[in-house]
Design goal:
Blueprint: E1 5-6, H1 10-13, E2 28-37, H2 41-52, E3 57-60, E4 76-77, H3 85-92, H4 94-117, E5 123-133, H5 139-151, E6 156-159, H6 161-168, E7 173-185, H7 187-200, E8 204-206, E9 211-216, E10 221-225, E11 228-240, E12 254-263, H8 268-271, E13 280-283, E14 290-293, E15 299-307, H9 314-332, E16 341-351, E17 358-360, E18 368-372, H10 378-392, H11 398-401
Length: 408
């Protein structure tokens, strides 16, 4: 009988210790052109991008790299900027929406290609399917979203009920759409691989080095950590969400908590009754679910988002939400009814008003660049790192500005 491990994800626990890199604390004083605050996916990808470009860079992580939200996500690479294309187009117009979604789709393939060059073997790219459940409303809204995507030139296919059932294995799907270029990977493996590669290219990575304050001078910025200070030309903040260092910017995001479960490997006969491996299924529920079947036969499901609860009683919330997710998974795939999760855990997420991440400068913070609200999606974090690099060199494109704070 499966004994569920609550409160932790499998990504770190199943990683061999020899593949968990360790880095020193920062002590003393130093000068770097660029200092990155935050050792999650966006921070590590950015450190690697800058080091590969020949920029001397230091990264400061308060705890251990990858031990925060980065290793607690579902590991789904989402090939879209936000769940609803229609809402993004209504807010920002077709040109901006198309650019946001095309950039997000490309980033999945670019990340997969870069990861494979560095030796990551288990990173899959495939189609995803957004389905309208039999207990969901507003089929017209989903059809409208698909039509707007097609009108904008995005690659999307509308699926009638029979096709939706055939492609997803869901008996309850009334309709759906096929979304190109999504993926699945172990987020901790991605992070540690890129961290080692960044260090190999000269990036200075420091763990257990929490940043206490940042002072901006006329010609440089001072980043003060627990045991020293770094003078830098540019400070890049990749903390996932605004921390108390940038309290005034907290208004830009909503702080929620998402929950994730992973089953044990399903028996072959049972696995054949679930969606094909490597594919990702999401739905129109509020909040939506993300379901993927790993190549080893395990099923991952994320969802049950809610406002971030207080720390007290959190264990009970994780238990309750994990069981809720397994129930909702059994509604999607009745064949696995009664299966217990092997892992159930929580992941903090920050969400913007339009669902699209922020990546770029903010007019109130000179010498700063930010990357927030990537949803702990490796593909979004990878895209953010490229946008930040272009901003640093003064080569930001028009499409990059759509990810900025100024988009409204």
């Amino acid at each position: 009988m499966t004994r569920t491990r609550y409160g932790i994800s499998p990504w770190i626990g199943e990683s061999p210790k020899r593949r968990r890199p360790e880095f020193p604390r920062f002590k003393g004083e130093a000068t770097y052109p660029v200092v990155i605050i935050g050792g999650g996916l966006a921070g590590i990808f950015t450190a690697h991008a800058f080091a590969a470009a020949g920029v001397k860079v230091a990264l400061l992580e308060a705890a251990r790299i990858g031990h925060g939200g980065a290793s607690r996500g579902a590991g789904v690479l989402q090939g879209e900027a936000a769940p609803s294309y229609r809402e993004v187009e209504e807010r920002h117009g077709r040109k901006a929406a198309r650019a946001l979604f095309e950039a997000s789709r490309r980033s999945v393939r670019e990340l997969a290609s870069a990861a494979r060059r560095l030796g990551v073997k288990r990173i899959d790219t495939n189609d995803a399917f957004r389905v309208l459940s039999s207990y969901a409303a507003q089929e017209k809204a989903l059809a409208r979203d698909a039509q707007l995507r097609r009108d904008a030139g995005l690659d999307v296919t509308w699926l009638k009920p029979a096709a939706a059932t055939r492609e997803t294995g869901l008996d309850i799907g009334r309709a759906g759409m096929r979304l190109r270029d999504w993926g699945q990977a172990n987020p901790y493996e991605l992070l540690t691989t890129f961290a080692s590669a960044a260090a190999g290219r000269g990036a200075a990575i420091f763990e257990r080095s929490a940043v206490r304050r940042v002072k901006v001078r006329p010609k440089y910025a001072e980043v003060h950590a627990e045991a020293g200070a770094i003078r830098a030309d540019t400070v890049i903040v990749c903390t996932g969400e605004p921390t108390d260092l940038y309290r005034s910017l907290k208004r830009h995001v909503r702080l929620d908590e998402r929950y994730v479960v992973v089953t044990d490997r399903l028996p072959a006969a049972l696995g054949r009754q679930v969606a094909p491996r490597g594919r990702v299924i999401t739905d129109t529920e509020v909040p939506p679910h993300l379901v993927s079947v790993l190549d080893d036969g395990r099923v991952v499901m994320a969802g049950a988002d809610q406002p971030r609860p207080p720390a007290r009683g959190k264990e009970k919330v994780v238990l309750q939400r994990s069981n809720q997710l397994m129930y909702e998974l059994s509604r999607m795939f009745p064949a696995i009814s009664g299966v217990m999760p092997a892992y159930g855990w929580d992941v903090p997420i920050a969400t913007t008003a339009d669902g699209v991440m922020y990546a770029g400068p903010h007019r109130n913070f000179p010498r700063h660049l930010f990357a927030w609200a990537t949803r702990h999606d490796p593909a979004q974090a990878f895209l953010a790192s490229r946008i930040l690099l272009r901003h640093f060199f003064g080569h930001a494109s028009r499409d990059d500005t759509y990810f900025a704070f100024t988009r409204g």
